[in-house]
Amino acid sequence: xKTVRVxxxxxxDGNRVMATQRNYGDFAGGWEFPGGKIEQGETPEEALERxxxxxxxxGIRSIEFFKNVRYQYETFFLDMDCFTxxxxxxxxxxxxxxxxxxxDSRSLYDVEWLPADVGIxxxxxxxxxx
Length: 130
Ligand SMILES: Nc1nc2c([nH]c(=O)n2[C@H]2C[C@H](O)[C@@H](COP(=O)(O)OP(=O)(O)OP(=O)(O)O)O2)c(=O)[nH]1
Fold this sequence. Notes:
Layout: E1 3-13, E2 16-22, E3 31-32, E4 35-37, H1 44-56, E5 58-72, E6 77-90, E7 97-103, H2 118-129
Parallel strand pairs: 1-6
Antiparallel strand pairs: 1-2, 1-4, 2-3, 2-7, 5-6
This protein binds 8-OXO-2'-deoxyguanosine-5'-triphosphate.
Pfam family, one: NUDIX
Cofactor: Mg(2+)
Keywords: DNA damage, DNA repair, DNA replication, Hydrolase, Magnesium, Metal-binding, Mutator protein
């Protein structure tokens, strides 16, 4: 079974995190953290910067490792590094997503997360509340 390595951004603004809803592929309609597959020769941080620019038109800063999540999907194994970061530059554009929400610790469970993401939400909740 193939392993897919992904970098995901927990974009923080004060006590809130950005959640985006996918508009394409098998997981369309599900909520996730923006990001994508790490390409050959890239570090996870480089992949993250590239993906956030491509998907959202944003530059990011203060990239810090938060948590690694592993999840067995039906057709692949996901190995995802999650990083906290902040917006540095740009104006939000949604290229791969149909909507975006800023969620705080009380509203984190209001959206339907992709299955692998459920493993991050409780840790993130503590972080946002703290
Ligand atoms: N970006 C992101 N992907 C996630 C999350 N949770 C989760 O299970 N995934 C899965 C969905 C996808 O199968 C995979 C990410 O791949 P992707 O399709 O976004 O990657 P990509 O932008 O390089 O896209 P593509 O060109 O291959 O279509 O990880 C998450 O929070 N963020």
